[in-house]
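Q: For a teaching session next week I want to show students how multiple molecules come together into a single three-dimensional assembly. I've collected the sequence lines for a complex. Could you give me the predicted structure tokens for the whole thing so I can convert them for display?
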Amino acid sequence: MNRRWWFFAVLLLLLPVVAVAAISVGQVTLPPLDAAHLLWRSLTTPQEALSAANPPLAAPLLLIVHDLRLPRLLLALMVGGGLAVSGTALQALFRNPMADPYVLGVSAGAALGAAAGMMLQAPLAFHTGLPAVPVLAFLGAVGATALVYALARGGRGREAGRGTRLLLAGIAVSAFLSAGVSLLLLFGTQNPGTVVVWLMGGLAGRGWESVQLAWPYLAFGLLVVGWCARDLNLLVTGEETAFHLGVDPGRLETLVVFGVTLITAASVAVSGLIGFVGLIVPHLVRFFTGPDHRFLLPGAFLLGGTFLAAADILSRVVLAPAELPVGIVTALAGGPFFLYLLYRAGGASAHE
Amino acid sequence: LPKVGDLNLSEERIAALRPDLIVGDLSLERPFLQRLERLGWPVLAVGPKRAEDIPQAMLLLARVAGDLDAGLREAARFKGRLAKLAAEGAQNARRPAGRTRVFLLLDPDQLYTTGPGTFLDELITLAGGRNVADQAKTLWPLFSEEALLLADPQVIVTTAPSAALFQKPRWQGISAVRAGKVYQVDPDLLSRPGPRVLDGLAFLISTLREQR
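A: Of course. Below is the structure for the complete assembly, covering every listed component.
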């Protein structure tokens, strides 16, 4: 109990520190007070005035803070938090510590959509005015999960072993779609490097348009998953027990899969495949808050967002003036840390 | 000549043709060429790294093709034109305000550019400009948008259609975008270290000349 309290206290202190750093650090590093001042000015100046200022680049710093760093920070918080919540919910749903937000085919579907978007980019963008890559990545992710879900639920399957069927269908569909990505890479007209960098996941060059695109799906998905918190608590005690306590496991599964799909599809659409946040953050949080999802889910959201925002700062600084895809940073930082936890706890944070 | 593959070459098809000589580019196909060489096939690898190395490669190819005279002629012509273009580039570089800041965009989606030490970077310098990514630590960096806004390039050259990027409101303040100095160029003219690079260089020089 005490531990849980400390965990949230530290997180709520850490978040503003990381947020201020995310606004201050980059190509030019500003003193935090200047950054805060600039941010205030950029938020109180109307958008039209910013872009119509003459000459517009009179204040490149204002532009950098308002149009690059702020939306990137928000995206990192949303996507990192969303992925961590998704991972938490799926680990509970499948009672499997290896589950991450991508087990249901989201990653492969999004990758196929994004790769196709990059190959066909010009025509689609021309005809609809929509950015091809995020839209197709989103559709690919949703489509892949829908396919996995339909395959696992349909057919002559028995009710028992439902989770396993979903996981296996996810693996099979992912493998199939990944082959499609490889084919596009081999035969596509585009430079394969572009697709590969997208696959590594990153927030470089994302601005307000990405925030606008992603937030409604993320918010709705988070509400759905959050609403399931109590039922997830019952489910991890065992499907049988949960059933007798009034939980309909089939309905719960549908709700969680639906919410998680919205969250991860929107995240992946704007940031590519960022690994590890959705896998390690849930374990880390569970270590501090215990298995109660009413604390676990908000904790995962806060820590996931803070972690990704911090990783994004690194991805901007390490190779400056170039960018490192943030997915590399999360995996480099997350991998060893996960192993350390595993070594320390002997897997005690797993469910069974 | 029959085609033996695109970026993925088929050894078997090459073998079936029994070529007298296999010519390849060292920078792109080194492992493949080495494998062919180990098979005992006649391989000639050329890989000019700088514009001034190109005449050498031309001579080499002319000699194995058995027409050294043509090679000498072409190489001399290349050298002459290169010298003339380099002089024009040097003039561009002597602007009172210093070298024009150039950003080279290699991808329609991401800010891929060329770092220092590449063939493309050399061409920008020869043309009298300064590559805004010349401080990057890698050959083909994914440039940061912040760095681009701060570097404020005066000319942007793209090798891919990337009109969408240039409509971003936050890019409207960049000098090159404001002045309409965004040019698209056929990538083959800039990135293939062969005779065509002179056309690419001439193009770069002309875009920078307007800048004076």
